[in-house]
């Protein structure tokens, strides 16, 4: 019994420390990373911002892809220059992006202009990079080890503000501890 208790506590500590190393990534419709739903009628323009919140060891790179529904036309991508040092790939096929220096707070690698073609309720989502097989960040420790990143928000298309998917604020405080507290 004592061994089982010790094993359980050890497992809890290991999973807690592994969780603590996670960063977050989400899709938003605004530069303040405060809203993740858009609605309109007919054919209309929308904006998609990709925001990252590093874990406690910071972030130097990110790898992920974006899955788009059929009612979205992708348009211009704007990079966060001069913060981005290199980007390989593209959003739907898989993107690997690195910064010129370590990031310790909210950061956005890019945002994209979109066109919504019909009133269907759909969503855009962050998905694993096809080659990496994961959504991940490289942190700022020696050797830049890779750690998993958790998707915080999808971008909901043609959802009214009162829809359950749009309620609450994904980012009530812009600190990693506040976000981590939501999942503990």
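Q: What amino acid sequence fits the structure above?
A:
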């Amino acid at each position: 019994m004592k061994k089982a208790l010790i094993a359980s506590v050890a497992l809890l500590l290991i999973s807690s420390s592994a969780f603590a190393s996670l960063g977050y990534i989400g899709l938003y419709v605004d530069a303040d990373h405060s809203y993740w739903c858009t609605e309109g009628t007919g054919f209309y323009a929308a904006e998609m911002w990709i925001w990252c919140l590093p874990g406690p060891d910071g972030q130097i790179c990110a790898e992920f892809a974006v899955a788009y529904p059929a009612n979205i036309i992708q348009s211009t991508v704007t990079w966060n220059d001069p913060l981005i040092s290199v980007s390989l790939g593209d959003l739907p096929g898989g993107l690997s992006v690195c910064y010129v220096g370590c990031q310790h707070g909210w950061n956005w690698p890019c945002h994209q202009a979109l066109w919504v073609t019909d009133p269907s309720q759909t969503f855009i989502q962050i998905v694993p990079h096809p080659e990496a097989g994961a959504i991940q960040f490289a942190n700022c420790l020696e050797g830049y080890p890779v750690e998993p990143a958790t998707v915080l928000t999808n971008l909901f298309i043609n959802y009214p503000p009162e829809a359950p998917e749009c309620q609450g604020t994904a980012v009530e405080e812009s600190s990693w501890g506040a976000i981590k507290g939501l999942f503990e």
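Q: And what stands out in the fold?
A: The domain at 23-183 is CATH 2.60.40.680 (Immunoglobulin-like).
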